[in-house]
Description:
This protein is of the alpha+beta class. It has one domain (24-214). The chain has 5 helices and 8 strands. The protein has helices spanning 2-17, 74-80, 100-106, 113-122, 153-168; strands at residues 39-42, 64-68, 93-98, 131-140, 143-151, 184-189, 207-209, 211-214. The strands form 3 sheets. Strands 6-5-4-7 form a 4-stranded antiparallel beta sheet, covered by helices on one side. A hairpin with a 2-residue loop joins strand 4 and strand 5 (143-151). One 2-acetamido-2-deoxy-beta-D-glucopyranose (NAG) binds next to helix 3.
Amino acid sequence: MKFNLLVIITVVIGSISALPNNQKIRQTPLGVPYQGKAIQINKKILATKKLTFQSHPAGNASWLGMSFDYQYIEPVFEILNSTKVPLLSRGESHVTVISPPEFSVLSTSGITIDQIDQIALNEKIQHSKVKIVCLGKEDVDGKIVYQLIVIAPNLVKIRQKVFQLFAKQGGNTSLFDPNSFWPHITVGFTSGDLFIQDGVYKGTNVCYRPILLVHKIK
Ligand SMILES: *[C@@H]1O[C@H](CO)[C@@H](O)[C@H](O)[C@H]1NC(C)=O
Ligand SMILES: *[C@@H]1O[C@H](CO)[C@@H](O)[C@H](O)[C@H]1NC(C)=O
Ligand SMILES: *[C@@H]1O[C@H](CO)[C@@H](O)[C@H](O)[C@H]1NC(C)=O
């Protein structure tokens, strides 16, 4: 028994010290090789609570987002942009939490963007803990899109609270799944973004290069 415990502790410590915190990470979380070296990002990207929450009302195409400071995304854009594959940027950065098509579904139950914003504020959306997993890349139908793939449990919680309101207001629960969620921060694209409606999943399946959070970009 004691021996087993020792083995378990040794294995746990071993795997912690082997965690991907250096440039030697070679495989994505899904166990396929990364296609480029690590990209450095200033750790301050995660200081999102300094940013005020922004509402995005737009009729039936309203949406909910968590804001990020674009000044820390811009250097990533510069690394990826080239004369060979010129990219466009929106010049701002966010994680979409409820997308316009999702809002359109939710609004059939009478849910308003104000109600959704209120849930986000109650759950302190800008304080959400976020882990950056990798830089993702899709290349579909002649469009190339790059984004940071992230994990953010509080954003899932916000979606679940929105779902509870949707159900309470008599919404059709087949039509919105709070857990069908692939949070990411779009960095740039060649001509336009790609969405789930294009059959594109922005999860760890698209991990392309590792991300290294640093105090200062070298
Ligand atoms: C919003 O409503 C307009 C007009 O009713 C419709 O044409 C459009 O497709 C809707 N947009 C969404 C995202 O559902
Ligand atoms: C991307 O790179 C191209 C080619 O170097 C350049 O002309 C363009 O201005 C860059 N785009 C942005 C948004 O900086
Ligand atoms: C839920 O939505 C689907 C698709 O629009 C529809 O076929 C179904 O009848 C709806 N169910 C209820 C209970 O309204």
